């Protein structure tokens, strides 16, 4: 028997979540964000579930290549743009659109134009540029003061230039810069300039869709059925469905007497007799080592996972195993199915217990975990 630790991917959930984006943003084109191997879901499966998108946004040329090899012929956006001068030519060959957020990228594009136009092999209008404005997040992007000048430089060499920014606080109500403040900076800076716009991430789509209108939205986490705020209730309210379920089985049972402890460091001690399930998943599979006692795990009931129940982690997560208190599940035995997160147990709940966010847990799934 092979190790039972598996990620199940529900491509129908991806399709459903994309429909929810379309419902919230009618008439707006969608860049489905699939960076980090589709937030840990696997690019190829994600392509299957999200093929109804208008384009895919991802990190670099290596990811773009995977999509092209899988037969995707539509738009691809490189979210951090070019990393070297040579990238310009590869981006052109792969037919990628590029974010431009730094002046060195502008230089590379201009140099490439000079080199290739003289050889008559480059047509700048075939490479669309999404010029990124720093409207207050202070991560990537040009400050408004230099934005228009750079726009005109790129326009002058013939590029099709679109405008883009990224919101810092679309999932907060009490932090600045607010979505309104960033939007105001963005709109006043591009006033009178031609070109499409791209603004909203998942949080802005979910909570600011009446306010923020643009040509392209860029949803990531909501496509996978996970909350940008970290609160599961938000996902329920938005009618999104979890695409990834991380599952395994019980591989051992221990009966502890009062006063005994479990695992490394004897972190969990019991003062009553308990039953412990040892399950085949650990931090080498991507489960967070820092998950404290009490972190929820879904243990299948007598009829399977659908009538299962939450049981608490008891003891330090180790490399390949987790120990769970199953005293309340007398039917549970070696071979009983377990869900670490997914369809029955939202990843947001596990992330909350472990002091992190769903994004991090999804992206951390290790390559040794099988996928179905
Ligand atoms: C520029 C940009 N747009 C969109 C997204 C998608 O964000 P989310 O997954 O929160 O929807 C990201 C993700 O980090 C991003 O960096």
Question: What can you tell me about this protein's structure?
Answer:
With 372 residues, the protein is an alpha/beta fold. The protein folds into two domains: 10-226, Alpha-Beta Barrel (TIM Barrel); 244-371, Lyase, Ornithine Decarboxylase, Chain A, domain 1 (Beta Barrel). It is 30% helix and 22% strand. The protein is built from twelve helices and 18 strands. The strands form three sheets. Strands 1, 10, 13, 14, 15, 16, 17 and 18 form an eight-stranded mixed β-sheet that branches. A hairpin with a 5-residue loop joins strand 11 and strand 12 (268-269). Helix 7 (144-156) packs across helix 8. The radius of gyration is 24 Å and the shape is elongated. The model has no long low-confidence stretch (mean pLDDT 95). Residues 33, 79, 166, 201-203, 218-222, 228 line the site of pyridoxal-5'-phosphate (PLP). Pyridoxal-5'-phosphate is lined by residues 33, 79, 166, 201-203, 218-222, 228.
């Amino acid at each position: 028997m092979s190790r039972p630790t598996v990620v199940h991917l529900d491509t129908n959930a991806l399709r459903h979540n994309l429909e929810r984006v379309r419902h919230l943003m009618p008439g707006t084109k969608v860049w489905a964000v699939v960076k980090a191997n589709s937030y840990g879901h696997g690019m190829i499966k994600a392509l299957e579930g999200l093929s109804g998108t208008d384009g895919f946004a991802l990190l670099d040329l290596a990811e773009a290549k995977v999509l092209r090899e899988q037969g995707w012929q539509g738009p691809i956006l490189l979210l951090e743009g070019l990393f070297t001068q040579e990238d310009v030519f590869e981006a052109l060959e792969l037919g990628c659109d590029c974010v431009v957020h730094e002046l060195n990228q502008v230089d590379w594009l201009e140099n490439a134009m000079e080199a290739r136009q003289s050889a008559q092999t480059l047509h700048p209008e075939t490479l669309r540029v999404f010029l990124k404005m720093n409207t207050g997040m202070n991560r990537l992007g040009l400050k408004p003061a230099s934005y228009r000048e750079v726009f005109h430089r790129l326009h002058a060499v013939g590029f099709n230039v679109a405008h883009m920014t990224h919101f810092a606080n679309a999932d907060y109500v009490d932090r600045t810069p607010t979505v309104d403040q960033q939007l105001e900076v963005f709109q006043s800076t591009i006033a009178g300039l031609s070109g499409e716009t791209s603004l909203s991430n998942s949080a802005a789509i979910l909570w600011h869709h009446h306010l923020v209108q643009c040509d392209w939205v860029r949803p990531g986490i909501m496509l996978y059925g996970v909350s940008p705020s970290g609160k599961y209730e938000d996902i329920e309210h938005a009618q999104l469905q979890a695409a990834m379920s991380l599952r395994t089985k019980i591989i051992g049972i221990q009966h502890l007497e009062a006063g005994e402890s479990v695992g490394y460091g004897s972190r969990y001690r019991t003062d009553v007799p308990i039953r412990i399930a040892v399950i085949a998943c650990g931090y080498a599979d991507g489960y967070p080592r820092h998950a404290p006692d009490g972190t929820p795990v879904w243990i299948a009931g007598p009829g399977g996972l659908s009538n299962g129940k939450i049981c608490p982690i008891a003891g330090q997560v180790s490399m390949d195993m987790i120990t769970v208190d199953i005293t309340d599940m007398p039917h549970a035995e070696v071979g009983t199915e377990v869900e670490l997160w997914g369809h029955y147990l939202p990843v947001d709940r596990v992330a909350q217990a472990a002091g992190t966010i769903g994004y991090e847990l999804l992206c951390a799934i290790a390559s040794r975990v099988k996928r179905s």
